[in-house]
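Job type: complex structure
Entries:
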Amino acid sequence: MSRNLQRLKSWEGVLLLILVATIILNSTLAPSYLRVGNWINLFELSIEKIIVALAMTFIIINAEIDLSVASTMGLTAGVLAWLHMQGAPFPLAVIAALLMGVIAGAFNGFWIAYAGLPSLVVTLATMIMYRGGARILLEDRSIGEFPAWFSHLGQQPMVGPLPFALILFFALTILAIVVLHYSGFGRYVYVIGNNRDVAEYSGVKVRRVKMILFIVSGTAAALAGVLFAARLGAVRGDLANGFELDIITMVLLGGVSIFGGRGSMGGVLLSILIVLNLRNGMSLLNLTGHLQSGVIGVLLILSVLIPNMAAGVQGWLHRRRQAKIVHET
Amino acid sequence: MKSLRSRIRPEQLRELVLFLLIILLLLFFSTQIDNYLNARFFNRVTTSAAIIIVVAAGQTLVILTRNIDLSVGSIVGFTAYFVGHQLALNNGMDPWVAVLMAIGVGALMGGLNGLLVAYGGVPAIIVTLGTLAIYRTLLVEYSNAQTVLTSTLPEWLLNLPRAEIFSVGKMDFRLLVGLALLVIVIFQLLLMYSAYGRRLYAIGSNPDAAKIAGFASRRIVFTAFILCGALSGLAGFMFLARFGNITVVAGLGIELESVAAAVVGGVNIFGGSGTMIGAMLGAFLINILEQSLIRWFAISEFWRDFLLGFLILLAVASDTLIMNRLRSTWERRPLEKMDNETDSGSGPNRPTPSKGGDHVA
Amino acid sequence: MTTGQTPVMEIRHVFKRFDATQALDDVSLILYPGEVHALIGENGAGKSTLIKIMTGIHRPDQGELLLDDEPIEVHNSQEAQGYGIAAIYQEPMVFPDLNVAENIFISHRTFGPIVRWKQMYREAERILTQLDVKLDVRQPARGLTLAAQQAVEIAKAISLQVRVLIMDEPTASLSAHEVRQLFNIVDALKEQGVAILFIGHRLEEVFEIGDRITVLRDGKWISSTPRAQVTADAIIRDMVGRKVEDFFVKSQTESGERLLSVHGLGKEGVFQDINFDIHQGEVLGFAGLVGSRRTDVGLALFGIEQADEGQIIFDGQERKIGSPQQALDLGIAYMSEDRRKLGLVMPMSITTNISLPTLKNYLSSLGLIKHKDEMATAEHFREELTIRSPSVEVEVEKLSGGNQQKVMLSKWLNANPKLLILDEPTRGIDVGAKADVHHLVNDLAAQGIAIILISSDLPEVLAMSDRVLVMREGRQMGVFTRDEATQEVVMTAAMGQNHAKNQTVVETRA
């Protein structure tokens, strides 16, 4: 077994331990915690973020980043609300919103895959642009009064106790696992993330893969934006503001390397569970949402710092061993 | 005119373009908005740009080293609240103490960023995305969601924003604006004349070479973050003086505006080139756009963010796609000349004819 | 000439081993002040290892370095600089956004805290004048030619009071004119008493600049001779050493139909006017030295760097090859010389690497990977090519160089190419693996695959090829049949050396 795989395995082991610890801690804090209803609630509260996190996992494994996802959520929800306000048929508005997500993703993808600009800068700029787009459409209004079926979709259980968004999430998760770990496309995502040049020298269509990834990311964000609108029942220009931080944290905490090529859906799912449970636990402790973001911020930094330092210590030990060997011979 | 070619480079050309762009923008809006170019407009733009200019100066130091600091908005917010709170508790505090306190707190926060980036090996984008949330959380926790109120602040502070150094007609040259310009001048000199400043450029220009060169590149990156934090702290103080009422959302979004100012001002997002003057012009451009949109009825003021994002993308795309081409054609000339010189065997100290001169005109 | 003086630096009986290869095997060298010591040898002769030991990047297993007769230990390049030892590489490490003067002084303690520009410019101009270099010290380093960048690095070394300057193939990417300029600089350095170790690959240059010429071969010291006493023939003999008979020789095969014809292929500033044919079952060797641009021709045929003039006729039809996918579809495969950067995805498994170019063949109708098929293929190649590994799921970074090379070969063989371009297929692998590769090439040719064999290992090219195309600095020097191609003939063509005159020849460019 490879050392990297072992490290990854052990990272997932660490995640599992943290998860168990949070669950135990939470269940001692509140007896209601372990009920199915609470768990559904726990997922529901962050359902939009975790849907986007699935797409973000692909992007980061591909050695790119998409900072614009939260703004894309805002923009697409904005398109939905604006069209609704203009009196467009609602299903058409939903389709237009999803289409907006495709366009937003393709716009990112164009600059990154074909113009060769770094994704960090491009999506930083479009993060501001797309948010601006939402503001242009909605100004400082809050738009609601969506059709009843739409609000139902966001707020009522659909199958048994499960709401639509959660079912969708499960379906997308299975799809994401299959595509990332079992499909040819997923293989290309890893190969490009590890070494773009080797991929190119092996006839892989690198640009096309990147373009598709950003379109998928935009579409996932659009889906999340529409779902968020359904759940909230109203849309404002600042919808989902700052969500990119949580989403990226979930992915990195899951053991996906910021430099690409490494990570798994399993790790990301574990870290999603941890983040959700932590937030839940902190709410149980009556900690504010802001404090929760702070804790997530600390986690984000630690998720990169700790593996770095571990590698540093490992390297140092290795060098010392080498030096000793050389000395002895 | 000696070696004008080597002094005027495409980067500077861009500052010129930026300056022209500002003029054009002003001319355009003056045809659109009645009574556009008045003293009040001047005062408003300069005052609102002052804070961004100071933060953008810090941001520029960091970006020059091929890093980024997204936590500056939270640092501005925290220091504004912190110092405001201290002043509310102790109205008799010496103004200098208050300013130094703001700078110190900011430097501390920047120091943590720098530590993690330079010595922890964590990418700046990750670190500062994290501390963006962490410092904001500190503010929320520290403030207990209370607000610093204007009424609790000392008199001198409230008068500070309107304090002027001199005025021409109704156009005031205000103290805070003067402070911002002073920052730009000091740091421009730092970049031009200090070994530290030149090494900032070196690190961003070729990080690999910087690692094996004989200077402490990690420490330089670390101090760049400290300086960026300190300047954000100073901006926090200015923010406090300007607005008086400080809530938990103070300074929100300044990180993006500062990055925008720097990048639009010609600071290369990949490090290695850019000036304080450019960042300042970038800040002015953005603020003029912002203040004009408020008064322009053709489109809503809500276009601001969209245009801001678009400007950043434009600046980066033009830098990568156009400037590279421009640079290479620009620089091909002296090389040809070098060859000719050797062939003609002329002395080494012969003054170089300024072939670049025609480009400047 | 300053021999007879006390040496500045001495290398005594240095040994260095990397895994399977003995990179340096009892090498000694003496550097005198004001003398240019030229070092020459084929790729893999141990030149770069020697430099790395002198600059502290590697430590010798045995042997010592002496500076002024005192033994020294060098642990990194900064320490080396402290001893006055500096190296200049083919690709200089400059700061493109800083100007020439700054690049010279940026590392100096005296650079700050306040930069005194005028004084710095004066000082920089003084040093450059000393070197007889005309450069505007205020010009940014970005866009300087490589030659000018090297001059800046040399100036930097001088400003740091260098005593031993190592120049690692500094002329590899320079034009003839720029080489002249560089040699003027070297002369200026000699006058200042700097000891120079000049690693070269063009014989005429070495003859021109070197006061003493040392030949390394296979990590061993072969000869050190004052220039006055050497001849080109002797040097070539020393460099080549081994005899073709030591090699496995390709069996004679009937070559089949003409597969590829290239007419007047060129790419501006890289290579020009390349013409050759290759038939099925034929091995066409590409010989030449560093910078001869053989790899670029290979990349043009594989669609990575498109040629901008000339004709490629493949399978009887004229083709424009615009991308690797297109080349693969035609049946052209290219195996890169750079295993780590361009050949294999190191942290991924043998299976993943082998199936990468042909992944389409392993997908179900839903686009899912048929992992069993893929493993079966990898397993097949593991047996066929005797890849030593416990399983095909092992990451390639765990394998030895030779086994990695076999994985890379498998990856391309699996694409069933009609034309296989092998770029340095045996570089840096041990003798056993080398022999395996040679046998494989022989078998492939027998199966009717056309092979272009790019190799710097001259005996290998001669032993394995039906015909040999020799390149030099982007130009085709000739195509030799198996009977014509002796080591001397090929080496002479590759070095652009006119056999009749073996004194210093100043190159003139067409």
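Summary: Chain A has one domain: 3-291. Chain A has a mean pLDDT of 89.
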